[in-house]
Amino acid sequence: MSQVKILVVEDEILIADNICDTLTDLGYYTYEPALNYTEAISILEEESPDIAILDINLSGLKSGIDIAKKINNNFDIPFIFLTSNADKDTVTLAKEVQPQAYLVKPFTQEELFTTIEIALSNFNKSLDNSKIDNNKALAKDSLFIKENGMFIKIRFEDILYVKSDHVYVEIILTTEKKHVIRTSLNDILSRLNSWFIRIHRGYIINYKHLDQVYGNKLYVKGEELPIGKKYKEDILQKINLN
């Protein structure tokens, strides 16, 4: 599990630092704020943030809207527009690049938190509902789950297996921690990459952590899990054993 990483792009350094401090207090991870287009693109390319907060009006030739266009074309993350100008023309320009949210200065800590969480939620729903190609889907290395009112990022490599528990699923991690969320195994499987395979009506495993297959059971990091009859052939095909 890792913190949600946020890029803040704001050319007024005192405001930028205040936003980053507030985000840290809320439990997020922030980079050093970017003051212009060039610094923002550098962080996007080198650090891979999970979400960006972009001031629309930046000093220099390129604005937050230019950064948003770059994000839409080259990066697969949500972004929030931040501005002190809520006039019709600004909103019209902002809408063209389809931000996940729009935050007007000044704002409260609660407004900032709510806006980020809604942006992350809407972005993840759009991914679930859109027809994305396999290569793009496989490029994903994590998923977000909502726990205690906040979205948490879980890396695929940290997941051992997922277990169904009535209307809930348990996500078991390599750290021996687990997360419980209200959803179905089918929903979770649709959000995972090709490392994951269903082995039973109640289990999905990350076959990167698969130790051995023996009869109607298998072992993931030493833990025994059952294999359903209808899934065994798929498992063997997946691991190239048949």
Tell me what you see in this structure.
With 242 residues, this protein is α/β, with parallel strands linked by helices. 36% of the residues lie in helices and 30% in strands. It is built from eight helices and 15 strands. The strands form four sheets. Strands 2-1-3-4-5 form a five-stranded parallel sheet, sandwiched between helices. Strand 8 and strand 9 form a beta hairpin. The longest helix has 21 residues. About 4% of the residues have low confidence.
Mean pLDDT: 85
* Total number of beta strands: 15
What percentage of residues falls in helices of 4 or more residues? 25-40%
Would you tell me the structural class of the helices and strands? alpha/beta
- Terminal Cα separation, in Å? 34 Å
The strands making up the biggest β-sheet line up spatially as 2-1-3-4-5
Assign the CATH topology of the largest domain. Answer: Rossmann fold
**Helix/strand order, N-terminal first:** EHEHEHEHEHHEEEEEHEEEEEH
Strand content: 25-35%
- What name goes with the CATH superfamily of the largest domain? Response regulator
Shape: elongated
Please tell me the CATH architecture of the largest domain by its name.
3-Layer(aba) Sandwich
Biggest pleated-sheet summary: 5 strands, parallel
Low-confidence stretches: 130-139
CATH class of the largest domain: Alpha Beta
Compute the gyration radius: what is it?
Answer: 21 Å
Number of domains: 2
Work out the helix count.
Answer: 8
